[in-house]
Amino acid sequence: MSINRLGDELTRKIAAGEVIDRPASVVKELVENAIDAGSETVHVALVDGGGTSIVVRDDGEGIRHSELALAIERHTTSKISTEQDLDRILTLGFRGEALASIAAVSRMRIVSRAAGETEAFELVIEADALKTPVQPVGRGQGTTVEVSDLFFNLPARARFLGSPRTEYLHCSRVVQRFATLYPEVGWFLQHGTRETFAAPSTTGLIDRLGQVYGPEIARSLIPLEGSRGEITVSGAISRPDLRRSNRRDQLFTVNGRPVSDRGLAYVLASAYRGLLRPGAFPLAIVQIEIPAGDVDVNIHPRKEEVRFGNARKIQDAVSAAVHQALSSPQVVASALPADERTETSSPGAQVTEWPRSGTTGSAVRDSAQPPLTLDLRAETSRMRAVREAEKVRIRGDRRVIGQLHTTYLLVESPDGLEIVDQHIAHERILYERFRREMVEGDVARQLFLLPVRIELPFESAETLSGSLGLLAEHGIVLEEFGGGTFLLREYPRLLADPQTKKGFQEVIEALISALSESHSVDDVLHKHLASEMACGAAIRAGDHITLEEAQRLVERLMALENPFACPHGRPIIFSISKDDLDRKFKRK
Ligand SMILES: Nc1ncnc2c1ncn2[C@@H]1O[C@H](COP(=O)(O)OP(=O)(O)OP(=O)(O)O)[C@@H](O)[C@H]1O
Ligand SMILES: [Mg+2]
Predict the structure, then answer these.
(1) Are residues 190 and 272 in the same domain?
(2) Which residue range forms the structural domain that includes residue 442?
(3) How many structural domains is the chain composed of?
């Protein structure tokens, strides 16, 4: 085989192919440029999902007449000039290749009027060649980039595009992501002749999320805040009762740049562990600010991934912020209908009757309330008051009076009625006891006289066989038998009995998926495994239990430090106070 030197045109197309793989990547690059130019409004108009035409119009600082032709060349940028600048990138772009890449695979027209100049100028390029010289046209300050017939000269790539609808959805996702991150910028999206998204400039993330996802969803968000050393984490996450069926509504940013990072996604998923059913995902906007020198943004052709100097520290900061947000009593649901929740305005009222803390949510559900941002802020301070109140609460005696739908235990308490989720309560008790044994390094094991056979598909068997030592630390002793078969010889005594009734196959599979999702052996993983095991062994919804068993369960639950919510914030007890009942029946 002989070695050829590729022509310029071909190498440019190859390079462009790395940056631009579908209309959405054009939209992303053009929108990033608009943001870097300090625009206040960005309009995106697509025809046929962007395949026929993409127009991005902004009112930013514009490109000077003298530099217009330069802007579309490769490696030309106004954003960095020296190697040191790579360590302190604050703009979204820095490589100076987006416009050149787009120009290499489309017909492009740029019109721009720079701040301080009196005229706008136009440039038309087709497949990298300047078709018309720069000429004057009418336009206010800002830039319009029109990209037509994307991949007209790369038929192979064009064939792999999805339907216009699919491509449109990808583009609109890009616009919505940037809209979320830049609430002070006004965003408008048009598909064909229809305006499909409009988000006028607004003041904060929560207001913007209301524009993007609708007010109902915005109200079910919990603000995220936290800092560790030089790392700060902000944003918003959804309450566990709001579930999305995929990860698309999760957005991580590092210094304003959207990034995809498996480690961070894993940290988020672990924090919601046990709060969501399998296959459900939270909505989350996690904005991380770190010193520019602690992150390398130059590792991915489309700038979608970054590398951290100390990933672990960042994950810890995110994990702490998410846990903190999820363990606020704000996420504990209230049994009362909205019209009954009245005294939510003063934190003082909350202090005396803690289990009604879930009512904090009602303040934002009331349409007569001031804008969401303010509410959430007030809510945060209420949450603090509630957390204090939680500490001073007296538990008193409780009596189980029945089981509802073989799922919930009804408990008479000194202040009213409590409804306990039997599965979550039992899981939490087992988890606490098992974690204690683990932390003390003293997991009592049960030896099976007849080992239990577990059969696994190839990939799971691989994962498991690499983690036998780790599982043994958790009291699970498995022996590899070959061909995807394992023999379970020992299991933690605390969990062995109840688990035996249910069989081990499912729990072992759950453990394997926990193992394969995680990247390191750390405390998060240990907790994750422990909670899978506790979940596996706990009584389930639908299991009959006797009143005595139920009574014992509730007593053991009450003996825990915080029996009202699991550490991740999922409510275990749902209360209706006697006062509320009296009011409901007009006794008061
Ligand atoms: N909408 C715009 N408004 C003002 N200037 C722009 C705009 N789009 C591009 N430019 C100018 O053109 C230059 C080249 O843009 P291009 O997107 O190719 O590179 P970049 O943004 O510097 O880096 P990257 O390739 O990482 O996006 C920019 O540095 C900027 O000076
Ligand atoms: Mg750019």
Answers:
(1) no
(2) 396-562
(3) 3
In this structure, the answer to whether residues 190 and 216 fall within a common structural domain is no
Residue 269 in contact with ligand 1 by CB distance below 6 A: no
Residue type, 478: L
| 316 and 416, same domain (yes or no) | no
On whether the CB atoms of residues 457 and 483 are closer than 8 A, the answer is no
Give me the count of residues in the chain. 588
Closest Cα to atom 1, ligand 1: which residue?
Answer: 34
Q: What is the pLDDT of residues 460-497, one digit of tens each?
A: 888 888 889 889 988 999 998 887 889 999 999 999 98
Per the domain annotation, does 367 fall within a domain? no
Domain termination site, one of 271, 297, 326: 326
Helix, strand, or coil here: 142? Answer: strand
Q: Is residue 334 packed enough to be buried (19+ CB in 10 Å), middle (13-18) or exposed (0-12)?
A: buried
Model pLDDT for residues 355-381, shown as the tens digit of each residue = 223 333 333 333 333 333 434 445 455
* 231-238 vs 257-259, strand pairing mode: unpaired
Instruction: Compute, in angstroms, the gap from residue 25 CA to the centroid of ligand 1.
Output: 14
Q: Tell me the CA–centroid distance for residue 309 and ligand 1, in Å.
A: 27
Atom of ligand 1 nearest to the CA of 61: 4
Query: Which pair of tokens denotes residue 61?
Result: 């600082």
Q: Is the Cβ atom of 95 under 6 angstroms away from ligand 1?
A: yes
For the segment 527-539, what is each residue's pLDDT rounded down to a tens digit?
A: 888 888 998 899 9
